[in-house]
Specification:
The complex is a heterodimer. Chain A has no helices and 4 strands. The model of chain A has no long low-confidence stretch (mean pLDDT 94). Helix content of chain A is 0%, strand content 39%. Chain A has a 4-stranded antiparallel sheet with strand order 1-2-3-4, with no helix packed on it. Chain A starts with 17 loop residues before the first strand and ends in a 13-residue tail after the last strand. In chain B, helix 1 packs parallel to helix 4. Chain B is 28% helix and 32% strand. Chain B is α/β, with parallel strands linked by helices. In chain B, helix 4 links the parallel strand 2 and strand 3. The N terminus of chain B is likely disordered. Chain B has one domain: 3-Layer(aba) Sandwich (Rossmann fold). Classes of the chains: A mainly beta, B alpha/beta. Chains A and B meet through strand 4 of A and helix 1, helix 4 and strand 3 of B.
Chain lengths: 64, 250
């Protein structure tokens, strides 16, 4: 994802802004990292350049 | 809205698999499905024909065939889908074609998109995969939320007007389930529509099939207002705007 996307994305739960932590960047594209809600603290992974902003209970790795 | 917050009710509980079927289903069929979704729908092309935008959003973007049209006419084009498999197809397709669009994984009923950010939106052939009814209405409210006050969007759904459903009797048929509004008026039915993979394997997909009148009912229950409504090739195509004063609407 491009860093500029931060201007228009938000936490799916409470719609607050997200903080970005980059783990891998290539040619300006963020390939891996974490988005963290500045309000509720929920974290969302960026994998293969695609942020996963599904609500946590819809994620594949949702804890049972 | 009097409804629970999107994504809030089930947090911490084991995922209800029935709710999440579309993700697993589309992840499974993504490659083949995408191959059969090469071209934009003419109804979407004509809706977009004279429109330009600063920021445009494609909810339920699938392989991105319509996000591509948005990228041609908007400074920023964003495609959202619940299926990672389809998003991979979308990213590959955009890269191959040199399309400047962004894609992210998200739920139509809990959009991870800033309020009032999009002046153009499309939400086509997706709402029929959501259940139950309150999630479908919530997804319409989410589209309204992300539209800016002057924004416009196209919403479409497969409908009971399609030839395929001509013989369906929601009351008598055991494999479909009638859905009504609060007053008991039928608005459509739930059913299963198989996707057949090249090897012949059939993958069931959940569908809520609205009657055209039922789709109007749910749009009226949402924060969107109807600008135009047409039925074409068995699909309902509705041009919508943010309802004035929707924030105070129940």
């Amino acid at each position: 994802m491009k860093e500029s996307l931060l201007d228009i994305i938000c936490c799916p739960l409470d719609k607050h802004d997200l903080d970005l932590a980059v783990e891998d960047r290539e040619d300006g594209e963020i390939l891996a990292g974490t988005l963290t809600c500045t309000d509720c603290g929920e974290t969302y992974p960026i994998e293969d350049g695609i942020p996963n902003l599904l609500p946590p209970d819809m994620r594949e790795d949702a804890p049972a | 809205m009097g409804d629970e917050t999107a994504g809030g009710a089930g947090r911490g509980d084991p995922p209800a698999l029935t709710d999440h079927d579309p993700i697993a289903t589309y992840d499974r069929i993504a490659t083949h499905f995408s191959k059969t979704r090469e071209y934009a729908w003419p109804e979407v092309e004509s809706f977009l024909a004279d429109r330009t935008a600063v920021r445009a959003i494609d909810v339920g973007c699938g392989n991105g065939r319509h996000t591509e049209l948005l990228a041609d006419r908007a400074e920023t084009a964003l495609g959202v889908d619940a299926s990672r498999g389809l998003l991979r197809e979308a990213c590959t397709r955009a890269e191959d074609r040199g399309i400047d669009a962004s894609f992210l994984q998200g739920d139509a009923a809990a959009l991870p998109v800033t309020t009032g950010t999009a002046d153009l939106g499309i939400y086509v052939a997706t709402i029929h995969h959501l259940r139950p009814r309150r999630r479908r209405i919530r997804s319409l409210n989410e589209l309204a939320r992300v539209l800016d006050p002057g924004g416009v969007a196209l919403v479409s759904t497969w409908s009971a007007a399609h030839d395929r459903f001509a013989d369906v009797d929601p009351v008598a048929d055991a494999d479909v389930r009638a859905v009504t509004d609060e007053e008991g008026t039928p608005i459509g039915f739930d059913t299963t529509v198989d996707w057949t993979l090249p090897g012949g394997e059939r993958v069931p997909r959940f569908y809520h099939v609205y009657t055209p009148a039922g789709f109007r009912t749910d749009l009226a229950a949402s924060d969107l207002s109807i600008e135009s409504f047409e039925v074409s090739s068995g699909n309902c195509y509705v041009t919508v705007r943010l309802e004035p004063g929707s924030a105070s609407k129940e």
